[in-house]
Amino acid sequence: VRGQWLISVYFPFVQLLSSGAAAAVLIVGAGRVEAGTLTTGALVAYLLYIDLFFAPVQQLSQVFDGYQQATVSLRRIQDLLREPTSTPRPAAPRAVRELRGEIAFEDVRFQYGTAEERGETGEALAGIT
């Protein structure tokens, strides 16, 4: 929760800094353009440089946010895996028989058409390996 609070403050703060810097450059630059000491193209270039400066800072904060979320998620998964099972252990467990590698469906009925259409083989899912 604390990490999310920091991120919720950090993102708007970086955006405020970016907007403030752009506004300051625009105000100072507009005065210089009016005085004839700066061209409009140079002012636009300065504004683009500000975006180029703040874009990696914002991307870094997004990566940090993803890292924080992943850390919290990992902690929750680890807590869940440490949780004791709610299924009680049997008093006298039975040994598992050796598996034969086949499945038998007994007393299972379903069909996909008439007897003539599907052919009567006596096995469900006949011919499937």
From TrEMBL:
The chain crosses the membrane at residues 7-29, 35-54. GO terms for cellular component: plasma membrane. Residues 1-69 form the ABC transmembrane type-1 domain. The keyword Transmembrane applies. Keywords: ATP-binding, Membrane, Nucleotide-binding, Transmembrane, Transmembrane helix. Its main location: membrane. This is ABC transporter ATP-binding protein.
